[in-house]
Amino acid sequence: MKKLILAKKPLSLLGSDTKERVNNPSRNINFSLKAIAVLFCFGFLFFGLAGQANAAMYYVSQVAENGYVIGNDSNDGLTKGAAKLTIGSAVTAASAGDTIYLNDGTYNYGAGTLNINKGISLQSETDYGAIITNNGGSAYMFALQAGITGTFTLGKVVLTEAAANNKLMYVFAPTTKYSLIIDGTKFLNYYKIALFIGNSNTDIDLTVQNSIFTSNTILGTGGNYYAIEGDAIRNGNILITGNTFTHSSPLTGNSRAAISIVKSGDNSTVTVSNNTITDYISGGTLDNISLTATALASSTFTIFGNIIVSTSTGGTSYGIRVIASGAASLAPIIQDNTMNLDGTSGSITGIYTLNTNSIINNNVITATSTNATLTGIKVDVSSTIPCDNIKIYSNIATMSGPGGYGILIGGESTGARYTYLTYPQVYSNRVVFDEVTTVTAHGIMFGYIKYGLGWNNYSSGSDILYLIKGSLDTTFYNNVAVNPIATNTSNAQALRLKGASNGQFINNTVVDTNTSRNGYDIAFSVDADTAFSTGVYSNNSVYSTKTLLEYISVEASSVVSFVNNNYYGSTNDFVYQGTGYPTISSWQIAHESTASTTNPNFANINTSYAIASNSSLIDAGTINLFSSTTGDYLNNPIYGTPDIGAYEYQPPYTITTDHPQYGSNIRIYGDGKYRYITATT
Description:
9% helix, mainly beta, single chain
């Protein structure tokens, strides 16, 4: 046997990199580690691709179209040429992560149900070419069973009913949490519930997006009817976005919601956004969007960008309703939604929240009715859940009907709200009634709450424009009140205290120029409720062209201070605790020595109520907590002593660039701005 001898190659003949590894063992180790890392990455990529390759595609067909053969359940279903005939057979063959494609056609399950128990993807060969239906008579037509794991996805498939089922698609509470994605699906002609998720303690991540829910079916009477109902979803994030809901059949004595979610778990989010909802109800309760939280503390509800159009011919209708019950504490964000709500009777509310620390902003609500009570936004409590620092701002509520509320914080009577509804903030909103109010309508109201603040709001056309009722330490400042309208049974009132303790109206502007309605208008109205009122009216401006005007009316038991208000109009009528004061001088002597009656000289009364440069209200107010820490109605800064009314005159000149006229009288402010004290050309 010959011995194999390996000749040692001289280092001089080796490559430089090889020589370096021979002479430097540590670098050789580094090279080995790099090689291992590269091999690991390639291995990870290989096994990852192998895992993807293991995700199979199955095909189902009942017709020989789109490259398919007519299916047979004895086929393996792995190609269009070997398609299966039924969805159930494909589901049996598939594994979690697989995709099933349905050829165009109608898959009718008779009186039965399509059951799916795996985390697969179900897609249509062409958009909405595959239709899944049955002939009714079952509790549900399409069911996701409890054993699903991973992710189940339903794509651009049509689910529809030929006859009544209880639920079109039923999602059972899963054994283990999984993700459900419904993307672009059409739910049509459902008789009761289109999509039902969970019956108790459901743990699921739910996404419903870009889907269509349409039912024109006469749904009868009795029971609850929903497009999407999530019942007791415990843990998991919920996203419902970009969907279209259309219900044109009237319901009589039913409850209906386009979206109804009941959430019972913590540390999750619920987002309902950019949906378009058109709904109609006759009697019963209509919730276009309804979210309820039970026994949770850390979930986040966000509702934004939705468009809601609803019609009711009776019953109770809500655009958006969010409720926290039990031990729940919730802070929903409701913003940038648009609502057009119409009805002939019953009650209509744009946004309603109960027991929540709400943020409600930038919503546009239009409510119209011939005989229904209208409410733009209502926030209330009914239990011992503290609701602090609620913020309602930059909303527009336009109301056309017999009566109601623009924005209502609290209610008409005491109870839990007086203890648990505290520090609400209402600012920069616009509330407009159509000036044909026939019953009680309130623009913005604090009812039996504590420490409320309302500022920079605009309210017009209701019989009471701003109301503090039964509340403690609550203030309206820098607001504009225009044309209070007397009803068939009561006088109109601009700024009203009723049973309030330390209620304050400061630096508001009242304008009353509507002479088309009969009845007395009262600028400042004070009376008792369960208790007499106390408070102060200060630095307010009243401008009126109406002869049937009473500047002030204070009932017998209330005690209120009046400081530095300006009253301009064609009458001089003041009533305090039953005593009338027919002249401004008699009123000044008795109760308000600082009262004035000068023309406010609005810069342009047709466009705004800002005061002109020659207004006597400039620097005529008094310093108070709000004027010293805030701006005016337009968020302009306060210059010098506050002006009377909601608007602060803004000096137009700067001392360093605009040279004063020779011999003129000017006032220079700390920032270098100045104004002429007397009129100039």
